[in-house]
Structures are given as structure tokens and as C-alpha cells.
Amino acid sequence: MNQRPYTVVLIIPTGIGAAIGGYAGDALPVAKAIASCSDRLITHPNVLNGAQLYWNLPNALYVEGYGLDKFAAGCWGLQPRHQNRVGLILDQGIEPDLRLRHIQAADATRATLGLNLTDYVVTDAPLNVELRTAASGASWGTIGNPDSLLRAADVLIHQARAEAIAVVARFPDDSGSEALVAYRHGQGVDPLAGAEAVISHLIVRTFQIPCAHAPALTPLPLDPDLSPRSAAEELGYTFLPCVLVGLSRAPQFVDKTSNVTSLSGDIWATDVDAVVVPASACGGSALLSLSQSRSQIIAVEENQTSMQVPPEHLGIKAIRVHSYLEALGYLVTHRAGISADALSPSLSSLHCLSVRGKTAS
User: Fold this and answer.
1) Distance between CA atoms of 195 and 191, rounded to whole angstroms?
2) Per-residue confidence (pLDDT) for residue 248, from 0 to 100
3) Is the pTM of this model over 0.90?
4) With bands split at pLDDT 50, 70 and 90, how would you rate the model's confidence at 15?
5) In angstroms, rounded to a whole number, what is the distance separating the alpha carbons of residues 95 and 286?
6) InterPro entries, alphabetically (predicted)?
7) Residue 212's closest CA among 85, 80, 89?
């Protein structure tokens, strides 16, 4: 009899300055490695997006953060798809030339990658994105016209029959800010990431449909000291290609409380075998939910963030490892059903437990 698929969730929260995964697709090597030693990898756009760079991982599921939280809580299941019709929303606040660059990028994915896109929609008002920074250093943001975003999504879903939504919003240009300079040099927090999450969360929460976002920005001046971890975002005029590729095969959401029939191939939180997360960022909703299941939590110390929320402070039982290389070794042994203690030369003998209390009569 075949065993059930070994399923791993890889979480690297966005906008918290993760040393690995806090930049432009720099967690993709980690995702590729984990996908190679598991049957199914569930992760979020922050991990798989790399502007014009992306990688086809046939066994990876591209799940937006709010959807991942609902999945982990057992409210939503994931229904894998071979292809989605992707609708594109463009912010009215994007300048005509920059808008054309994004339309041409979308057309290019149709012609060269064979993606199935609907016609696009321009919002009926500028979205007016504003960026914020929390006291912890994490980035977040606001949308001035969220109703305009939702109206555009509604048109794509009900008129164009879109099954996933890509959003391109005009973000403020702040090329001289200390935060952006630090980010380009491989330090600090991505100043855009938190606001991007707000945009995608709103659509997923409202329509229960896959969504991801790509910011529209004026190209930055060349920087000879640019970090390789940030370089993917400076290859062209748009970050859109990786988003369209990810959404083209993103799983659909199955609401546990709806009348939609769950299929045999649907994936639920009870199917998750292991979760890999930065050791200092264990306070997210998805991890808190999955820590209540039988999933093995693996906390990676080397991936430092601006958060200070280790698993022990929350009563979460986790295996601490130094690096993702060590995490990969643990996943391999876990999948094989081998105790990690057996790989150590200092395996101790079994101890006898005492039995106290009355004997059975």
C-alpha cells in the first residue's frame, strides 16, 4: 500500500527582514531543495517570487498568506490545479508608459510561457498605497481606495471568469530612503513587502481566490554595490512575470463550510507532516495553528529576522536546527521514519520508567 504524500510547509514571513527570504527571491534555493526531498511543498509568494526570475517546481503549491492562515487553521483546503485563468488588475495611479511595460510583460508570458490570462482591468480610482514601518522594524502599509481594488477584482471574476488575480499597484518612489538603500545592499527590511501583503489579503479574504501582487516602481539608478540577494528586482521594468507564473498553477481554496464537494486530491492541514520556519518568527497565525497538530515544527536559527518570537516563548514544541542545510537533513530522516537520534554517535541507552500508584485488582 502506498504511503500518503510527504507534505512540508515552508514559512518565511514577509516584511520582517529575514536574512534568507527577505529579499528578491533569495529563498527560492531553499524551496527548491525542500521540494526535492518532499512530495508536496506548500509555501507562499514571498518565497517563490523573484521578479523576472522564477523556477518551475511541479510539486510546490503557491498559497497567498491569508489563504495559508485559513488552510493551517483547518478552515480551507487546497485544490491543486494544472492551470488557472489569471486576471490582471492595474492601478489607475500607474503612469501610461509604466502601465504599458506591465501589459507587455503580461503578453510576453502568454506568448513565451503559454499562460492563460484574461483581459486586464484598470481600477476606477488610484489605489493610493502608503508605506509604514512598525516599531519592531517590520514593514506594512495601507490602501487609500480598497473598494476600487475590490470592484476591479469583481469584474475579472464575474465577467472575465478569472480564477486567480494578479495586482499591480503604484508604490511610492523613495530611492533616497535609508531603508531602501539598506535593502539594496542586502540589509534591513523590504520596505514594500508589508503593504503588498495587505493588498493580496484583501482580495483573498473577500473572494476566496488566489491572489498575489507586484509593485509598480520607477527603475532605480544603477548601484555598483548592489547585493546579489536584491538584484532580481533590478533586471527590468516590472516584477510581474513571477507572479503570473505562480498564480497560473496556484491551488484553489475549498471552504470547509461551503457546499463545494471536497475532492480526493484536496489537501488539508491534517496532511501536513512538517513545517519549516525562522526560529525568531514563530508568532504567525499559520504556525500557531499547525503547532497544535502532529506536524513536526523545524525552527531555523540562522535565518534571523527583526522579530524576537522563538517557539519556546509560545509553548511550541520545535526541533531547533542551525541552518536550512541541517533542516533538509532532518526532513529526509523524518520522511524515512528514522529517529534523528539514531544518526548520532552518542545514542544513549533506554531508561526504565517507574510505575506508581495502586496495582490493578
Assistant:
1) 8
2) 98
3) yes
4) confident
5) 37
6) DUF3326
7) 89
How many Cβ atoms are within 10 Å of 302's Cβ, its own excluded? 15
- Is the distance from CB of 89 to CB of 152 less than 8 angstroms? yes
The alpha carbons of the chain give a radius of gyration, in whole angstroms, of 22
Cβ-contact 42, 274 below 8 angstroms: no
In the chain, what is the greatest distance between 2 CA atoms, to the nearest angstrom?
87
Which DSSP symbol is given to 348?
A: P
pLDDT of residue 93: 96
Q: What percent of the chain has pLDDT over 90?
A: 70
State what percent of residues in the chain have pLDDT above 70.
95
State how far the alpha carbon of 129 is from the alpha carbons of 191, 192, 213, in Å.
12, 10, 12
Q: What is the rounded distance in angstroms from the CA atom of residue 239 to the CA atom of residue 200?
A: 15
Distances (CA, A) of 260 to 33, 47, 163: 34, 30, 16
The Cβ of residue 97 has, within 10 Å, a number of other Cβ atoms equal to 8
Q: What CA–CA distance (Å, rounded) separates 156 from 249?
A: 18
In whole numbers, what is the pLDDT of the chain averaged over residues? 91
